[in-house]
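Readers of this paper often ask what the protein records in our data store actually look like. Nothing more is needed to write down the fold, since each code stands for a local backbone conformation. Below, we set out a record of this kind in full and without editing:
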Amino acid sequence: MWIFLKDSFLSVVAHRARPDALLVRARRPDDIERVFPEAPVQHTPRADYPYRAEIPRARVAEVLAAQAQAIDYDNVKSQVADNARHDAYFECWAAMARWGRR
């Protein structure tokens, strides 16, 4: 699952060895730390996502539900303060817009 928040981009997948945990991955360590400040972030420089944290499934669900409840905007791109992140999000949005027109 890809998650685009106004200040974090995360990839969340099943943990191969721990069915009770999810692997939360990111391109930047602070993206995980902002959303899961208690999680120890591991650096895996050769991996597709070089930062990752093993987090219990229940904690991921709790935090993502709170993120959803806190939404107070009607356009996520307008809430992205970091210009480089905004541009990256816009490129993803544009790619999906093109894909949706097919």
